[in-house]
Amino acid sequence: MVDAVVTRLRALAADTLAGNWEHDHTVPSRTLYPHQWSWDSAFVAVGWAHLRPDRAWRELRTLFAAQWADGRVPHIVFNPARRGGAYFPGPDFWASARADGAPAVATSGLLQPPVHALAAWLAHRRAPTAQARSALRWLYPRLVAQQRYLAGRRDVGGAGLACIVHPWESGLDNSPAWDLPLAAVPADTAVLRAYRRRDTDHADVAHRPTDLDYARYVALAESYRAHGYRDDGLPQRHPFLVECPLVNAAAGAAEHALAGIAAVVGADPGPHRDRAARITAAVVDRLYDPASGTFHPRDVRTGALLPARTVLGLLPLILPDLPRRQVDAIVAEARSARFGLAARMERPLPSHDRTAPDFEPVRYWRGPSWINIGWLLWRGLRGHGHPELAAGLAASMIRLVATAGAHEYFHPDTGAGLGSPRFAWTAALLLDVLATTAPDPAVPV
Fold first, then answer.
1. 246-257, pLDDT tens digit by residue?
2. Active-site position among 173, 213, 360, 432
3. Pairing with 178, which of 118, 221, 262, 441 sits 20 to 30 Å away (CA)?
């Protein structure tokens, strides 16, 4: 039965990725997300490396061909073959062509967690061919520029951590982590009368961010756009400035990956190891709260740690050099009733504290379970010597897809599929988990 499950799931994942392939990149889904998304493409490259390594490298090349002159990798690269109204906010809203240093292709002006170096390193390790080495030589200076942008222009707090200017940059758009700083953003849902949300054409309104959330998202994007997406003067003019645990842990993990890549392409890995150590130290110093025993985002405008206990607090575990004290604290938090990690999990890992009064099991990042977050935590658990917990999390993720399909996200109690069906990163990361983990024999075929 186990072999049959693996065969079926691999076929499902391969079919999903093939169906979402768009000549030089993979769309997250054919309905809700018809363009190229930044961290989606990194996760997708990890999956393509198991099937078609050539597509893994083309995925990353296409994304980094749209890199801005300052090093930022935009969170959306728009496909000119798709009509402008297929997604909101679309290319006309972002108006990237009017910004200094933007690429020729239309993009957004925001970024997403820098998981790309890790993806490139994993793709190379999966198939260390001449093609892979050539791709790494092309990518390496661009990945370095991405890191330089985060460490330089986005170190708004001056403490060695990158700052996000919009919840979308965290990847966890409407997480309760952002409620307090968002509440300070002046916005009125009337702003949406000038636009049309497209997400609710394809997904249940109850599963998506609210209109008030979107009004604030639009206000923040307009604020950043009004200054040409420049990062100078952000503390004086921008209302949302937060040091995110995921973005910064991803930046630290990227430096570790870049050390490996540097050795392959003939560069010096030493500076990457040094930067990785500095980022990890800053993440612990700035974002770890001994009182709660977990990591929290820091609001740069107020200096305060944001109190919500979300899955963001677990993700510094992807840092290979995270100190043992913080590793043990994350594992304790993950095993608590808030998240329910176990060697045999009864329910999927939620994206927010399931004991909190504002836990919402079907609304996007306010409770549902996501495969990409589970995959990151799974990697961290394996790297820090918790194979039983990693296996339990892997089995839970496999059960989700085996039962509900390759959905965008899942109900954190029932496991029902939510959001877009046939979602690319779910399929891609499932392939990576299956490559090292046997599914539970109790999973139905």
1. 999 999 999 999
2. 173
3. 118
User: In the block, which residue shows the tokens 């072999």?
Assistant: 3
Annotated catalytic residue within 59, 408, 432, 440: 408
Q: Could you give the angle at which helices 116-126 and 53-64 cross, rounded to 10 degrees?
A: 160
Does residue 239 belong to any structural domain of this protein?
A: yes
Does 272 have pLDDT greater than 60?
yes
pLDDT tens digits, one per residue of 87-122: 789 999 999 999 999 999 999 999 999 999 999 999
* Active-site residue, 408 included: yes
Q: Which domain holds residue 386?
A: 2-434
The answer to whether position 440 is within a domain reads: no
For residue 164, list its beta bridge partners: 242
> What pTM was computed for the model?
0.95
What total number of domains does the chain contain? 1
173 included as an active-site residue: yes
CB-CB contact of 298 with 286 (8 Å): yes
Query: Mean pLDDT across the stretch 21-49?
Result: 96
What CATH number should be reported for the domain holding residue 315? Answer: 1.50.10.10
Residue 443 belongs to a domain? no
